[in-house]
Amino acid sequence: MDLKKSPKASLEDKKMYFLLIGFVMVLSLIYISLEWTKSEVTVYENVNSDFLVEDELDVIQTSQEVAPPPPPPPAPEVVEVLNVVENDKEVASIEINSEDEKDKVVVVNAPVAPRVVEEDDNVVFQVVETMPLFPGGEAAMMKYMGDNIKYPVIAQENGIQGRVICQFVVNKDGSIVDVVVVRSVDASLDKEAIRMIQSMPRWTPGKQRGKPVRVKYTLPVNFRLQ
């Protein structure tokens, strides 16, 4: 048999009301307890403000004194040791009698002049301060060579040409001697070059320290067919 309750007697619908009433009662108790235990705060008006401000510190900049360097150590004393040697040797004394030589005649010799070394006349220089020069200069020598060279017929027929280099010595008086060929092209051309050089007029001699000297001179002679 099922039991049936009356809707008015059921407490299930009033459950929410009871819960809200409980929350209100709990909050009321908490508020009352907080109000009851609140402590009283006392405010002092006469408070010395000097204690609340931090004291300002004056910073004074100081310079650090540098200590002077220590003095250098004194130099060691040098003790000079003298070796004393006994002089036991006998020294012969020489007596000069000026009375005996008062009438002596002193002869003073004249200074000897330095010997002048004369240069050998046969010395031949390669290079001197002033070199020998053909009369009229280089241009006059080229003209003389062009006017006086006779091209050998045999060399012309054979088509021989080239440069013959000759050497000769210009004496102190300007004359030409010792003509030789140092580089040959053909016998006929060599012979003609020697003949032309030997027929040259006297040159202006070379000079060394202002004096005429013998000088060796090198001269190329060109043979060219037109």
Quick description:
This protein is an alpha+beta fold and 226 residues long.
Q: What overall geometry do the principal axes of the alpha carbons give?
A: elongated
Beta percentage is 15-25%
CATH architecture of the domain at 124-223: 2-Layer Sandwich
In whole angstroms, the N-to-C terminal distance is 169 Å
Task: Report helical residue fraction.
Answer: 10-25%
**Unreliable stretches, pLDDT < 50, 5 or more residues?**
51-55
Largest sheet, in brief, is: 5 strands, mixed
Number of helices in the DSSP assignment: 4
CATH fold category name of the domain at 124-223: TolA/TonB C-terminal domain
Report the CATH superfamily of the domain at 124-223: TonB
What is the overall pLDDT average? Answer: 76
**Helix/strand class:** alpha+beta
Please write the string of helix (H) and strand (E) elements. HEHHEEHEE
* Rg on CA atoms, Å: 70 Å
User: What top-tier CATH class of the domain at 124-223 fits best?
Assistant: Alpha Beta
Q: Please give the number of β-strands.
A: 5
